[in-house]
Design a protein that fits this description.
Blueprint: E1 3-4, E2 10-11, H1 14-23, H2 30-59
Antiparallel strand pairs: 1-2
Keywords: Membrane, Transmembrane, Transmembrane helix
Length: about 70
């Protein structure tokens, strides 16, 4: 199915068009914003912890250890 709009865009998938029509005037919701904030609180420290693991791995790559005997 192909739908033409007045601004020249063409939408070829009805499922996406149906979702667009359903939620186009919904606006932001409290739960959407709340969950985004919670996920960011969890993810941002994780990114820094992963970066620190990479940093320590690179820094001590050539350091001899007991395990390498």
């Amino acid at each position: 199915m192909s739908t033409n709009f007045s601004d020249g865009l063409q939408l070829t998938n009805y499922v996406y068009y149906d979702m667009y029509v359903t939620y186009k005037n919904a606006g932001p919701s409290f739960m959407l914003c709340f969950m985004a904030i919670i996920l960011n609180i969890i993810v941002i420290p994780g990114i820094f912890m992963n970066a620190s693991i990479i940093y320590v791995t690179i820094k001590y790559y050539k350091t001899p250890s007991v395990l390498s005997l």
